[in-house]
Amino acid sequence: MGPFLELLYDVIFSPAAAMRQIAARRPVGQAFVAFLLSIIIPAGAIYFALQATAAGKFAGAFFAGAVCVRLVMWFVGSAVLQLIAEFFGGRGTAVGLFAAIGFAHLPFIFAVPLAVAGLLLPQGAAATVFAVGVLVLIFWVLGLTVVAIQGVHGLSAAKAVLVLLTPLLAAGAAALAAVVFVGAALWPLAG
Amino acid sequence: MFKRSVVLLIAGVVVVSLVAAAFLVPGLKSKRSGGEKNTVAIIYVDGVIVGGRGQAGLLGETGGTDAIIKQIHQARDDAAVKAVVLRINSPGGSAPASQEVGTELKKLRATGKPVVASMGDMAASGGYWLAAVTDRIYANPATLTGSIGVYIPYANWQELYNKIGIRSEKIKSGPHKDILSPERPMTAEERAIIQVMVDDLYGQFVAVVAEGRKMDPARVRQLADGRIYTGSQAKELGLVDELGTMYDAIDGAAAMAGIKGKPVLKEYGKVSPWSLLFGAHDEASLERLFFRRFRQEVPLTAPLAMPEKW
């Protein structure tokens, strides 16, 4: 328990050293626990929030769905990033990256105190504070993912960012190509 | 040791937050609903009033009277709702559908919540039927209303069939089983049967108006020759109570419910982005009704409480 707690501290306060340590030790079990905490805690908060809305009856389904989808995305996302990192000259292992990305999602546990702070604030301010807070958390997790790629694969910061952005750029390019092809196919019909 | 303490402190904050969320949210829910005590619900009746679910999508249904009745029940069961405004923009529809919604409106009124009708462009025939069962009717001076009456549409296409060489035959279980068939002229006996039905429905309509408007049935029959009236004509004749907009109707409903100050408005039947995505958004339209009739999806015998032309 002790080393795990210290690792969690390092992920939050000195991520570069933590990710290098994770790359070397590959603590998949601990990463699984950290990732599960980062899913279950915010999903639990959203579950309570949904209870107060008309969508309350879907809260349970949302909770189960969110946990399953995030676990699948962790696995698939790590595999995709591993492949891209190797294309960019990365030397790390897939298991190391899988574990590091699991830890990189840890900041999402702060979504709960953020949500509670939002509940206590007046309605107008709450929405703004919550939106800004969630954005900060998302960028924090993205930053940790970049550090994880760097730490595991020994890439430069720029290359690590590129590894992270490549799936997005590829998806954007594919969508653009689809629009162009579909548009070209439908153009004669428009006339 | 320091690192562990910090992580445990963070864990403590997160756990406390989670527990607080579990307790705060239900409190917030009751607090918010408590803040909406003085609510006036608005239920929209748009387009032709037809029975059934209208257009059903994955996340709800709109159009048919089932959706309107569901909204009436929501307003009845919502403790925050103190009064209901029925916003009518309809040329009418089928008599049974109008009657069913009218009955549910009466039940809503029986709970002590006042129901006020606000007429838009048109609240004729079946639309007026619904208005007649409310506590107070608001119409704009130019609103088209009235058309109190019932008809059962019937077409005789025999001559056309003869021209194009179609000869239709039926094996019937009884002499009147194919009454109102478009393939042959109606007999005098059948016409009498249908006329009795129409008279019965008309009598029910007149009774609803007489009871709702607290008018002498004989006087209602004088006015109920099927003609349409403008809002201001209807006001003079006692068919509506006030001339005014929907917001006048809301103020009137709030005053009837004893709400002081501005009421909170709750719109029922609002089209959600989800229902837009999943298709349950089209209101029932006359064209669609006619199209369905043409495709024999609704029986031709549906007694209609709406103007022949509108």
Automatic annotation (TrEMBL), chain A:
The keyword Cell division does not apply. InterPro entries: Yip1_dom. It is found in: Membrane. It is a multi-pass membrane protein. Residues 10-178 form the Yip1 domain. The chain crosses the membrane at residues 28-50, 62-85, 97-121, 127-149, 161-187. Keywords: Membrane, Transmembrane, Transmembrane helix. This is Yip1 family protein.
UniProtKB/TrEMBL annotation, chain B:
Pfam families: Peptidase_S49 (PF01343). Keywords: Hydrolase, Protease, Serine protease. It comes from the Bacteria. Residues 108-259 form the Peptidase S49 domain. Belongs to the peptidase S49 family. This is Signal peptide peptidase SppA.
